[in-house]
Amino acid sequence: MNSEKKFALITGATSGIGLELARLFAKDSFNLVIVAREEQKLENTAIELKTEGIDVITISTDLFLPGNAEELYRQVKGLGLQIDVLVNDAGQGVYGKFIDNELERELDIIQLNIISLVTITKLFIKDMVSRGSGKILNVASVASKAPGPYQAIYHGTKAFVHSFNEAIRNELKDTGVTVTSLLPGATDTDFFNKAGMLDSKIVKEGELADPAKVAKDGYDALMEGRDMVVSGFKNKIQVALGNITPDNIQASQMEKVQEPADNNKK
Predict the structure, then answer these.
(1) Which pTM was predicted?
(2) Is residue 141 included in any domain, yes or no?
(3) Which of 100, 120, 235, 251 has minimal Cβ neighbours within 10 Å of its Cβ?
(4) What InterPro entries would the database entry show (predicted)?
(5) What's the pLDDT at 5?
């Protein structure tokens, strides 16, 4: 094990933005702890990343399940690793009207997007503060800035994540530890498939961002110690306009973007 190099831990590291972030860390000679549910995808990802000459440790765990975030921390500590950079990328959504969606699925999303993220952040951040150094990148979303009909739970969880990021960053300002909030827009990942929203207007009619570009924006902001970054020019404009637009109007605008594409035919 090359202990002289720094370690970054990334959840959701086998696809999308998480994978692209892992590639950036690998190119910068960080050792990696990559976390995801599927062991085979983890192994395949590790093989690719190791070509950069780094050490890659894989941990397969399901962060939808209560207690697994704590177990992840225990596993890392059991390996004697110091995590210098933490990236909480794992997150999912569920598509449809709140009244129609299954409550159990929505609570699972809250468990993953909020409870697991908070737990992992809490446990690793204490170690970082105790030694006076560390960086955290928590992936929020431009969804954090507006109410989201057809994705009410997802938007709500990401609003929590972004607010949480900014609050703890302020608390940690004199500790040597930074927290960065990454706000991507709609990105070309497996998110929409997992959320069951491939028939939504935002997928069928919108322009999806390149996850590699989003990851680079987040990586640069993290390394520079910035508080947040909105990825993409159009998303920056959207967030800026949203700051002066009443929430009820934003909700109506978001409904038109996220409703099923076949609503055009009605």
Answers:
(1) 0.93
(2) yes
(3) 100
(4) NAD(P)-bd_dom_sf, SDR_fam
(5) 77
Q: Which of helix, strand or coil describes residue 261?
A: helix
Question: How far is 215 from 202, CA to CA, in rounded Å?
Answer: 21
The span from the CA of 266 to the CA of 251, in Å, is 21
Determine, yes or no, domain membership for 232: yes
- Burial of 77: CB neighbours in 10 Å, binned 0-12, 13-18, 19+: middle
Q: 19: domain range? A: 7-265
Comparing 2-6, 133-137, 175-179, which segment has the lowest mean pLDDT? Answer: 2-6
Give the CATH number of the domain where residue 206 resides. Answer: 3.40.50.720
Reply yes or no on whether the pLDDT at 264 is more than 70. no
Catalytic residue ranges: 154
Per the structure block, which two tokens stand in for 213? 């570009």
**Residue 1 maps to a domain:** no
**H/E/C letters for each residue in 101-160?**
CCHHHHHHHHHHHHHHHHHHHHHHHHHHHHHCCEEEEEECCHHHHCCCCCCHHHHHHHHH
Provide mean pLDDT across the span 88-98: 97
Q: In the chain, how many domains are there?
A: 1
Tell me the C-alpha distance between 80 and 176, whole Å: 22
Supply the pLDDT for residue 206.
84
3-state secondary structure of 33: strand
Q: Which residues touch 233 (CB under 8 Å, ≥6 apart)?
A: none
CA–CA gap between residue 114 and residue 141 (Å, rounded): 13
